[in-house]
Amino acid sequence: MKRRDLLLATLIILAVWQALAMLLNQPILPTPLAVGRAFASELGRGLPGHFMASLWRVVASTALAILLATPAGLALGQSPRLNSLFGPLIYLLYPIPKVVLVPVLLLLFGIGDLPKVLIIFLVLFFQILVLVRDQAAELRPELIRSVRSLGAGRRALFRFVYLPASVPAVLTALRQSVGTAVAVLYVAELFATRQGLGYYIYLNGSTLFNYPAMYAGIVAMSLLGLGLYFAVDALEKRLTPWRGD
Amino acid sequence: MIRLEKVTFQYGSAAPVFQDFSWQAGKGETWAVLGPSGCGKSTLLSLLAGLAFPGSGQVLVDGQPLTRPRPRTGLIIQEYGLLPWATVRQNVELGLRIRHFYGPDGTHAPKDFHPEADVDAWLRRLGLEPVQNSYPGRISGGQRQRTAIARTLVLAPDLLLMDEPFSSLDAPTREGLQRLTLDLWAEQRFTLVLVTHLIEEAALMGRKILLLGMPPNRQAQVIDNPGAEGPDFRETDAYQAMVRELRSRMEPA
What we know:
The structure holds 2 protein chains of 2 kinds. By secondary structure, chain A is an all-alpha fold. Chain A has a single domain (about 60-240), classed as MetI-like fold. Chain A is about 80% helix and about 0% strand. Chain A is built from 10 helices and no strands. Chain A has helices at about 5-25, 30-45, 45-80, 80-95, 100-110, 115-140, 140-150, 155-190, 195-205, 210-240. In chain B, the strands form 2 sheets. Chain B has a 6-stranded mixed sheet with strand order 6-7-8-3-9-11, with helices on both faces. A 5-stranded mixed sheet of chain B has the order 5-4-1-2-10, with no helix packed on it. The radius of gyration of chain B is 18 Å and the shape is globular. Chain B starts with a strand and ends with a helix. The chains are: A mainly alpha, B alpha/beta.
């Protein structure tokens, strides 16, 4: 996508927002300018801290999900026996919206980062697991055969075939689920914490009725999602150059 | 170089593809294995490559019974043998990297393996320098097969197995690569076993031709083709006569 087009799209969003704010003329929808001012002043107060708390939770859970789901997906994709054992389980668990487990995890693991990290981890884990598994299962037997004929045993096959083959699957999974991860993060941060953008947005919107500050939080959360999405996009371009055009 | 001793092989409980099948090929010979689809040509190559093992009997290469792929044997298949995420150059280097990965252990790489094999020379020899940084998905089928050939020959094999290597290519490209393969054979003097379903290709590439029929194959039918290997064999009467003979022998009785 061209930078110019992205800029244009941003301007359109701002214009529509401005128009809606002027039409509605209510405190619940301040203009972009008012939100921009609030955002700038909140930067000097608590906002960066809340942003970092949220960022840390997403990054930690993403790293954990990649580390555990990739090898599991590779194992399932390579072994029809393992897959027939775990396949039905995954089939049933995969479509469950993991966000409904937030109260359960909170009850089990209490306050702190752990339940929040775990819930995002669950979202990403199944996405990565399924995509890596399918990618590994789709590797052509001819490819495996010819790499084996070059002398590759199990370890070299893993290093030179299965591992690089799983990179695009991991990145696709991340791109698909980054939005969901941030949404789930928001819900998770509504409970049992005083840190994070979810808490910040809810506090300003429903307790303090400071709408410009609430919107500053929404903007920060959007930037978090966008930043993660752009990061995955950049990694995809860098790590999978054979797929681009 | 190759000895099959009373080899019996079958997939699951199906009828055997080979039954008490014996055959041998000498060092430096060029062999074409010809037969209709389903005759067991590719199975034979898998047995020779150490990727499949007989139910009974023995497959010996260079005097050693095979228990796994042998480091000095090269295998080139019809398609999909290249890593799609690696450039032409990286694909050509793959075998060398695998050998570095294990070191000269005699199992995955020959004990006397010297890592200074010249990738550049092979890229040049096969005309791949201009596309060395391209991915397999972006180059022609002929260039892909050249890449596969370079990747195999850079490892200096003494036995080269080719499984329908040119079947998916158009005729001019195929003829060019057939010529190239014979030239490379004349330079390197490896033993060549090429599996094909094309009568013309078998007549052109094999100084000896092993004819397989519908399974079970019990006896090796070997046809001498003394004219092959010459530079202009395709233009000769002997070539035409060989094509005719192979055609008549392949016709179902």
